[in-house]
Amino acid sequence: MNAKKRKMKLPIIAVICSLFFSVLPLISVMVAGAIANVKHCLLDEGAVNPCIIFGVDVGDILYSMLVFGWLMLVSLPLGSVLTIISVAWLLFVMIQNYYYRKALPEEK
Question: Any stretches that span the bilayer, and where are they (predicted)?
Fold first, then answer.
């Protein structure tokens, strides 16, 4: 039974990783925007603007996080395909486990 649990873990991890890969640039943009919004800093893709947090200028980091959002042009389509493949794999393993358990003799 432990081997069956191990078989299920890998497709579940693949689904989670593919979803995380596809939305990681979006998360980066949202975090950068939230930080800039809370600190009332100007954040745009045109130039690096100063943003002082605890005496440190994090404008470069926020700008990099914002521009990282352009990676969504690649990560969303590729992540969607990877997610579809990993969900199909998970469904295949679940169906395989169902029929394997159905074929086992019942214990009394």
Answer: 12-36, 67-92
